[in-house]
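Why show two proteins at once? Because comparison is the fastest way to build intuition. When a single record is shown, students tend to memorize it. When two are placed side by side, the eye starts asking what differs. So, the first record is below.
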Amino acid sequence: MELPICVTCGVQYGGPREDCPICEDERQYVGWDGQKWTTLEELRAGHRGRVAEEGPDVVGIGTEPSTAIGQRALLLRAPSGNVLWDMVTHIDDQLIREVDDLGGITAIAISHPHYYGTMIEWAHAFDAPVYIHEADRRWVARPDDAVVFWEGDTLELADGLTLINAGVHFDGGQVLHWRDARALFSGDILQVVNDRDWVSFMYSYPNYIPLAATAVRRIADAIAPLAFDRIYGAWWGRNIAAGAKAAFEASVARYLAALA
């Protein structure tokens, strides 16, 4: 049976259903034409994978034409094993071969539910666990033994690769710090904006609901101990290539001043 995929958010569910709870939540939306579904088979007929460098030892994985929210995933080519950060919906044999040629995947971690995509398909294709914070357990649309729920503030995936529960956007919203690459991978838990020298924060991006000052201070405190020069956002090219820690701190101050 082809499993249903929500057209709006691109998340695959474990069985037929009428609604997409992720899109019915106020942080997302149901399309104006109502709830629409597709499948991997349908997507493969008109889409293909895109693999391209996004930075030193960081490879972007996306879809052409883009689907759902349009984000791309990132393959971190670490000495301890490749980590796939965030997720896309499209996956096919060609894309699997290309990723295998880059060394495969040893672990998957996803910032928040809007990017769950076909995470179980990817987990099975590469025999890799998917790390999700326990606080977001209820949003997992296709329960599977491949999903590893973790608790607390931080989780070390491997030497120098650490998940941080920022607890914003979603309660289990997480970012990934790569110590040796001096890089922070943020999805849109904090979003690299068009200016590229700043990030910003939102409770809901499509519905323009700002993040509360207390939540911004929480993420600032969580990230304060980390050293990094780069921030990788959620879309192609949405990265801060240098001076990212200072840009983050300035962005926090600017955001809090605007709220005040």
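Second record. Ask yourself what differs from the first in the token line.
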Amino acid sequence: MQFRTMGLLASLSAGLFIGHALSVSSRASAATLPQPAISADARNAVAQMGTTLRAKEFSFRARTIRVYSNKSDLMLHIEHEFAVTVRRPDRLLIDATGDDGPRKLIYDGKIVVLALEGGKAYASLPVPDTIERMMQVVIGRFGADFPLADFLTEAPDKAFLTGVTAGREIDTVMIDGVPCRHLLFSQPPGIVLELWLEKNDRAVPRRLIVTYRSLPGKPNFVADMSDWNFTVHPADVDFAFKPPEGAKELEFGAITDAPHAGAPQ
């Protein structure tokens, strides 16, 4: 995955997106990897997903559970639920609730805003004019990331398979009454990806589990995705942020430095 890292944009997306750290060195390393041994059925399913997720407008919901380490080095779990609205190429809204309270990410093509407590505290940052380039800035400047970000890139299938060295289809299972392909992928060093895609023309992702087998305790990140809607038509006002009276504006770096940062998602 282009954005699969171990960091965390904990102020909003503790468990929303996974991805590679975006750097020249990571891209160079990926270029020297052997040709991936990915079966045709697995590659075709991911390609079909990529075609669907390149849609101009869509929304979905996600429920995530991720592992983090507390001050006593105990492996604990944190849960979040997200409503995500995308309007390519330059609009993104993420409305999140979870164990650590409500929060939002609002991106209007020029500014990205992270808002906590209904906007009572927020931070904003000028960013480039595409969703993917916005994520690159937030990751590159603040060491944060977006778990599940690969699904929002300009080429979701290529982003997901970046760094993957092997993949195959395991079987077909039912998720909420829908047949889904259960796919298994490997990425050095020690990352195992399980991806469930609907077994139909949409091939949207319904579940993702990432296991870090090379880390102590083999922590993982779990995401269940649902309510995919490709008929939405969000307006500009849906991606606008107006701070409420008395809201406190914080430095962007401070608002991303949240308690679970550094834990694998």
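One difference worth noting in the second protein: The chain has one domain: 36-241.
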